[in-house]
Amino acid sequence: MSNTLHQSMTQDIAFDGSPAKIFTLTNSNGMSVSFMDIGATWLSCCVELGETTREVLLGVSTMKQHQQQQAYLGATVGRYANRIESGRFVINDETHQVLTNQAGNCLHGGPDSFTHRRWLAEQACEQTIVFTLESPDGDQGFPGKVNASVSYTLTDKNEVVIAYSATTDKACPINLTNHAYFNLLGADSQSDCLGHSLVIHASQYLPSDKKGIPVGELKDVQGTSFDFMQSKELKQDFMADHDQQLAAGYDHSFLLETECHQGKATAASVTSPDGKLRLELQTTKPAIQLYTGNYLVGCPNREGSEYVNHAGFALETQYLPDSPNHPEWQQPSCIVQPEQMYKHQTTYRFLVV
């Protein structure tokens, strides 16, 4: 898979006139993961199941397809993942207006976000790749020069460890995540993701309007379709209430239990419908956005065809959406000061059951 992907992804040039640089990491179990410098993007995730290999990450196989898709497949998202209402926030009594790109709001950092940049890449060792990016003061309207880094490490425990760091010379909201979509039956299995069984260790979720902007306060999940404290299939309560109907499914943030924030306790786990593969997630971020691929229809896939809605799910570790405008929420501040370093980690562990 990796050699084929290297060849197909580099046949076409990227936006800047040069081909992408592709990197593949492998471990002692035969698992392999591939990345490219455009968007510091996670391109492929192949897990060995006995005598078969299962590609569990939704993706594309050519640069042309990558430039066509608008679903942020596997991309590093920043400066600020998720939405900022009207692209406006206040820091130290100064109002900042950043560029908007979805329904009058700023989504995933703006129209020319980190997703669309060529990152500098360095293979630190056989099982780690590091991408770095310098974002100038005023980039997309955000204050301060930001130097960002994301490293991907593949361990022999079938873990993909994503470590983020960033510094800024002016106070600025920073919220980096990866927008991987998974289907544990296989990215090209033609099966939707709604038969997967999910656990999220979160007792509260954040309702939002049809544009994805938070409305009101956090709500208890108990007694709602958002209760994943015990394992249940995504389809069990799918589209069961008004909050989901506004988003055409799940596209909501969950505030994780405090024991998850150290990155050691399991924050979420997903089991494939055939019971053969489980994904466990750990993170230092306070929240997870669950997205069930509600608008994937028309997105190109590796087979030269297109994905359909709900072809995969995303579990995006992040701060709650629109956090710059909600300092009252019970989570660490998303505003990074010049004397601070932004530092977070998310681990995806793939267990063959």
TrEMBL record:
<feature type="binding site">
    <location>
        <begin position="179"/>
        <end position="181"/>
    </location>
    <ligand>
        <name>beta-D-galactose</name>
    </ligand>
</feature>
<dbReference type="GO" id="GO:0005737">
    <property type="term" value="C:cytoplasm"/>
</dbReference>
<keyword id="KW-0413">Isomerase</keyword>
<feature type="active site" description="Proton acceptor">
    <location>
        <position position="316"/>
    </location>
</feature>
<dbReference type="GO" id="GO:0004034">
    <property type="term" value="F:aldose 1-epimerase activity"/>
</dbReference>
<dbReference type="InterPro" id="IPR013458">
    <property type="entry name" value="Ald_epimerase_bac"/>
</dbReference>
<dbReference type="InterPro" id="IPR018052">
    <property type="entry name" value="Ald1_epimerase_CS"/>
</dbReference>
<dbReference type="InterPro" id="IPR015443">
    <property type="entry name" value="Aldose_1-epimerase"/>
</dbReference>
<feature type="active site" description="Proton donor">
    <location>
        <position position="179"/>
    </location>
</feature>
<dbReference type="GO" id="GO:0033499">
    <property type="term" value="P:galactose catabolic process via UDP-galactose, Leloir pathway"/>
</dbReference>
<comment type="pathway">
    <text>Carbohydrate metabolism; hexose metabolism.</text>
</comment>
<dbReference type="Pfam" id="PF01263">
    <property type="entry name" value="Aldose_epim"/>
</dbReference>
<dbReference type="InterPro" id="IPR047215">
    <property type="entry name" value="Galactose_mutarotase-like"/>
</dbReference>
<feature type="binding site">
    <location>
        <position position="251"/>
    </location>
    <ligand>
        <name>beta-D-galactose</name>
    </ligand>
</feature>
<dbReference type="InterPro" id="IPR008183">
    <property type="entry name" value="Aldose_1/G6P_1-epimerase"/>
</dbReference>
<feature type="binding site">
    <location>
        <begin position="82"/>
        <end position="83"/>
    </location>
    <ligand>
        <name>beta-D-galactose</name>
    </ligand>
</feature>
<keyword id="KW-0119">Carbohydrate metabolism</keyword>
<dbReference type="InterPro" id="IPR014718">
    <property type="entry name" value="GH-type_carb-bd"/>
</dbReference>
<comment type="similarity">
    <text>Belongs to the aldose epimerase family.</text>
</comment>
<dbReference type="GO" id="GO:0030246">
    <property type="term" value="F:carbohydrate binding"/>
</dbReference>
<dbReference type="GO" id="GO:0006006">
    <property type="term" value="P:glucose metabolic process"/>
</dbReference>
<protein>
    <recommendedName>
        <fullName>Aldose 1-epimerase</fullName>
        <ecNumber>5.1.3.3</ecNumber>
    </recommendedName>
</protein>
<dbReference type="InterPro" id="IPR011013">
    <property type="entry name" value="Gal_mutarotase_sf_dom"/>
</dbReference>
